[in-house]
């Protein structure tokens, strides 16, 4: 058994995979984790050739919208591609993430501005973020936001979440994207990018339109579920492409302690147990109940 199995990153990754994709056998988790690590390891970002498709033409003619990306390993390149094809937009970020990768984001901004347009960063904890987003949209600029990060806060809506179905479980996700879409009456457009032999193809998924919803609460539930339904289709067969497995338990979207009341949690079979270091001692981690066994 590979030593990786004794480390917490693998243990939690494996437990998350089992919870959301229980049909995947335990013996496949180690290979999945290797693929996950390889897929998301730091790499040099570069601007690739963009295939001009009908979806790009549609985006260029689209009224200002919330363009939603996902953490699927090529999100940096997707933002660059949106700028290269001529889209004007601002990018909504979590301030802590920006500070952690400030040089990367400044490099991204410099590359984007080569086409002569200005690309601003907006921060989700800014009290004026809603006004700045409205200003961008009224100025015929899109706002690009990551749909699945669940980090940061939105002014006036600090940590309101809604429950959505996802794969074999559920998540508590922040409502900000759908709330802003309904308040400002702008559509949500999920986007994908696929790279084949250095050529990128941007695809726009069916829009999520707040205009047909009078009830804001109803639209928030519908909008966030729709965003994750689209993500689910990408992750179900290729789970290693989703970066968020590594921190689901840290961003508030999934708390293993809430699976069942503690006294009613049942341990998994011995196959689910893996040896792990805990406070300088050897213990076992049960990947079904997320419990430590001393």
Provide tags for this entry.
294 residues; globular; 2 domains; alpha/beta
The SS-based structural class is alpha/beta
Which geometry do the CA atoms define?
Answer: globular
What sequence of helices (H) and strands (E) makes up the elements? HHEHEHEHHEHEEEHEEHEEE
How many structural domains does the protein architecture include?
Answer: 2
**Number of DSSP helical runs:** 9
What's the multimeric state?
Answer: single chain
Q: What separation lies between the terminal Cα atoms?
A: 21 Å
The chain-level mean pLDDT equals 86
Total count of strands: 12
Q: List low-confidence stretches.
A: 152-157
Supply Rg.
20 Å
Work out the helicity level: 25-40%
Largest sheet: 7 strands, mixed
In a nutshell, what does this entry contain?
This protein is an alpha/beta fold.
Describe this protein's structure.
The protein is built from 9 helices and 12 strands. Helix content is 34%, strand content 21%. It is an alpha/beta fold. The two termini are 21 Å apart. A 7-stranded mixed beta sheet has the order 1-9-8-2-5-3-4, with helices on both faces. A 3-stranded antiparallel beta sheet has the order 10-11-12, with helices on one face. A hairpin with a 4-residue loop joins strand 11 and strand 12. Helix 8 crosses helix 9. It has 2 domains: 3-41 and 255-293, no CATH class; 49-240, no CATH class.
